[in-house]
Amino acid sequence: MAPNTQVLTICLSRIGDVCRMRMYDIILKKREGRELTTGEIKHFIAGYTAGDIPDYQASALLMTIYFQGLSDRETVDLTMAMSDSGERAALSAIPGIKVDKHSTGGVGDKTTLVLVPLVAAAGVPVAKMSGRGLGHTGGTVDKLESIPGFKAELEHGKFIEQVSMTGAAVVTQTGHLAPADKKLYALRDVTATVDSIPLIAGSIMSKKIAAGADAIVLDVKVGNGAFMRDIESSFKLARTMVSIGNLAGRRTVALVTGMDQPLGYAVGNALEVKEAVETLRGRGPGDLVELCMALGSVMLLLAGKAGNLETGRKILSDLLVSGKALEKFKDLIAAQEGDPRVTMEDGFLPVATIIEDVPASYTGYVQAVHAGKIGRAAMLLGAGREKKDSPIDLSAGIVLRKKAGDRVVAGETTAVMHTGDKQNLTAIKKIIQKAYEIGEKKPELQPLIYGMVPESL
Amino acid sequence: MAPNTQVLTICLSRIGDVCRMRMYDIILKKREGRELTTGEIKHFIAGYTAGDIPDYQASALLMTIYFQGLSDRETVDLTMAMSDSGERAALSAIPGIKVDKHSTGGVGDKTTLVLVPLVAAAGVPVAKMSGRGLGHTGGTVDKLESIPGFKAELEHGKFIEQVSMTGAAVVTQTGHLAPADKKLYALRDVTATVDSIPLIAGSIMSKKIAAGADAIVLDVKVGNGAFMRDIESSFKLARTMVSIGNLAGRRTVALVTGMDQPLGYAVGNALEVKEAVETLRGRGPGDLVELCMALGSVMLLLAGKAGNLETGRKILSDLLVSGKALEKFKDLIAAQEGDPRVTMEDGFLPVATIIEDVPASYTGYVQAVHAGKIGRAAMLLGAGREKKDSPIDLSAGIVLRKKAGDRVVAGETTAVMHTGDKQNLTAIKKIIQKAYEIGEKKPELQPLIYGMVPESL
Fold first, then answer.
1. Considering only residues 25 to 64 of chain B, which have any Cβ-Cβ distance to chain A shorter than 8 Å?
2. What digits encode the pLDDT tens for the residues B210-265?
3. Would the pLDDT of B12 be above 70?
4. Taking burial as the number of CB atoms within 10 A of a residue's CB, which of A89, B133, B335, B338 is the most buried?
5. How many CB pairs under 8 A join A and B?
6. Residues 182-201 of B with CB under 8 A from A
7. Is A260 a catalytic residue?
8. Could you report the predicted ipTM of this complex, rounded to two decimals?
9. Chain A contact for B426, CB < 8 A?
10. Which domains does chain A have, with CATH numbers?
11. Could you report the per-residue pLDDT of B324-374, keeping only the tens digit for each?
12. Could you tell me if B390 lies within 8 Å of chain A, comparing CB atoms?
């Protein structure tokens, strides 16, 4: 049958000079619910990154994946193909077990600002690449850039040198890592194919794997202020990412944590740096401190600096009390040309020109503070970006005075708006008031930590 | 809330200078299984035709429609939007009720060649626009062009004039009709989104409605040689198209007919013209004659030339016996500059240089002649196009000697190959032999006509 086979290997789907047959078959196969081979997934990622596979075929496949899903094996293949699409950060020059930490994004989530100096003070080298914020969640790099002089764009050699010298550095993520993910994410963003668990997991893990750490701790947020809205999907995402990380040879642990109300009290770049400093001083808000302890103790355990989570917590607690964690933050800021005085006293961070209270509409108990609405209000005050290239006001944001479970009297201040822009203040105030759900009974509070994947370490 | 609303109507999905927000929302809405409004469907079709909506968003929506389907209302809206995207053929200058006929495509389907002169001889004006073939099914225009001199590219005025003068004309479909469908079809073809019932129905009916006839008769083929493989889906497609046609004010009737084996005996352009001429002479193969009678009587009824289907059949039968139908074919060919002698005697149609028998592999009863395999074999012999711009050999094809139910002895000729190309003949012969399923028992034959939509007229 050889001649026959030869006759039949014709290209039935040709555009210009390029035969699209292979990609067509891949779309069709997945559309019919069949599993793609490793070779087919590599062909897709390599072809799309090189520009040989057009956007319209890639978006058709992404939508097919949205509907048909990917098996664990396919998800790992997709992740590795994206991770292999560009450079990999070489962290081997840094001695010790490097542990990376990633949050899926929440409102008021300044744990990275606390954790980087905290675990570095415990002797874990932290070479952190971080993103800028988009939409209602802030980015760690934006927050650090509210410190006067702080430079987040470090050349790779300098980055490695700083981690080796001071034990920690936080830099912007380079476009050379996982370029396939960058290109695919931009396409998903305009074709309504972002919220697919295997695609989210692949996107996050491809960057984490390319970023080169030996172990990865993930904070998967769930709630109205997070990307994932229900607990079941959050655990599914957590399990998927942990499975990918372990298969890629990086020990990976995920916590599923609540994001129904903002973390801590401050939302907005400089406001969050201030709260992080307070936390490193041992005076942080309970939920933020608890989350940093939970994530930090896992990081210490994975780095071999603590034999179990309890020991890890004890080490971290001591570092907060002794001031060594704050000292490490000061060193990190100084190493990246920021003004270290922000860790010592007020007055060195940018301050908003307009500061206005938001009064409570009713008397009662705060049942919930809708994190999504607070995040959106903070973005509209200038703290976040509507679009990728929007300018942001580093001083802008919201400081909550009341959180879920607190008693409030009508007219009492629930939150304070910080901004440089008078416009739309009335409308934004209404959004914040709507974020506060006030009722008669003292509410049962949502847990901060829903669970860990794996369940024990 | 007006200022707030204003603040929030920002474009969150921007590529370059264009806001993709509206199309993004349309994709998301359909992805979530919600019904699109008429305005949203019009926005998509108008924007895509104008080039404002990029291919990658269109393909994401097409794949979403593949998975989520379209309601009857959405399907009608899509069809009308595509139909309105270009010109509409003006047939009003032609007196009488114009009836169009469309087949979803089968192997050896030369009914249009028979029906156009046959119903025209009964006084129904036929202004037929037809396509060229692609893949394993042939196009009416290709078949007619095997008649020496025949011109299928008529200017619109001349087309109308010919229908008014001789009662019939067959021309190539102009690209000015339903350009949105043309553009969308090309995208579906490379993104594995062709086989969706609402998209197929919309594509066919948008062209039929734009082509301007007052009534439409559809032949929905089902079987291994057709696009639709199962009877249930075929009836669903038939009902969808009939519903669209009627809502668009065109009386529409569909027959669901079998395409498990080729229609008649001849497959290939000149070979099919010869069989059509035989049929118009009253000596056609039973299945082809029966299908022409069934479709033709519906056409006569819709055109008001017969009070019921039985009367219609009687009229058609008389026109075959009297030679008037053949005479009309001769007039049609002459009017379009073809050699009318092809209707009178052999020797005027192109003949293949290589004619070779395909012997039966076994002795027994032919259980089935796989239409899809015969169509592919004919294409490989040169009768069809692999790609849109492939040249075709008008003399090439296959003439069956045996069909399902026939007795055959091993070594006896089951079919005859006609080609101008020696290459691959052995492999093609094997495909034809595989198309013949031979067994011991006399098989129960599949029905030729499965049913009509609506069930009665």
1. 27-28, 31, 54-60, 62-64
2. 999 999 999 999 998 888 889 999 999 999 999 999 999 999 999 999 999 999 99
3. no
4. B338
5. 117
6. 187, 189-193
7. no
8. 0.83
9. yes
10. 3-83 (1.20.970.10), 99-345 (3.40.1030.10), 354-439 (3.90.1170.30)
11. 999 999 999 999 999 999 999 999 999 999 999 999 999 999 999 999 999
12. no
Contact between chains at B427 and A386 (C-beta distance less than 8 A)? no
Candidate list B30, B102, B221, B370, residue with the active-site label: B102
Nearest CB partner across the interface for A67, out of B54, B59, B67: B67
SS (H, E, C) chain B: CHHHHHHHCCCCCEECCEECHHHHHHHHHHHCCCCCCHHHHHHHHHHHHHCCCCHHHHHHHHHHHHHHCCCHHHHHHHHHHHHCCCECCCCCCCCCCCEEEEECCCCCCCHHHHHHHHHHHCCCCEEEEECCCECCECCHHHHHHCCCCCCCCCCHHHHHHHHHHHCEEEEECCCCECHHHHHHHHHHHHHCCCCCHHHHHHHHHHHHHHCCCCEEEEEEEECCCCCECCHHHHHHHHHHHHHHHHHCCCEEEEEEEECCCCCCCEECHHHHHHHHHHHHCCCCCHHHHHHHHHHHHHHHHHCCCCCCHHHHHHHHHHHHHHCHHHHHHHHHHHHCCCCHHHHCCCCCCCCCCEEEEEECCCCEEEEEECHHHHHHHHHHHHHCCCCCCCCCCCCCEEEECCCCCCEECCCCEEEEEEECCCCCHHHHHHHHHHHEEEECCCCCCCCCEEEEECCCC
> What is the least distance, in Å, from the CA of B18 to any CA of chain A?
12
CA distance B386 to chain A (A): 6
- Is B203 noted as a catalytic residue in this protein? yes
Q: Which of B57, B63, B187 sits opposite A190 (nearest CB)?
A: B57
What tokens does B214 get?
A: 């007052």
Dihedral angle computed from the Cα positions of residues A439, A444, A449 and A454, in that order, rounded to the nearest 10 degrees: -130
Q: Does B13 touch chain A (CB under 8 A)?
A: yes
pLDDT digits (tens, 9 = 90+) for A55-106: 999 999 999 999 999 999 999 999 999 999 988 888 888 999 999 999 998 9
What residues are paired with B414 via a beta bridge? none
**From B142, B181, B260, B287, the catalytic residue:** B181
Q: Find chain A residues with C-beta within 8 A of B28's C-beta.
A: 192
A102 a catalytic residue = yes
CB burial of residue B321 (10 Å; 0-12, 13-18, 19+): exposed
pLDDT of A13 > 60? The answer is: no
Average pLDDT over chain B, rounded to whole?
91
Chain B residue with minimal CA distance to A386?
Answer: B12
Q: What distance in Å separates residue A159's CA from the closest CA in chain B?
A: 32
Within a 10 A sphere around the Cβ of A444, how many other Cβ atoms? 8
The active-site residue out of B98, B183, B207, B330 is B207
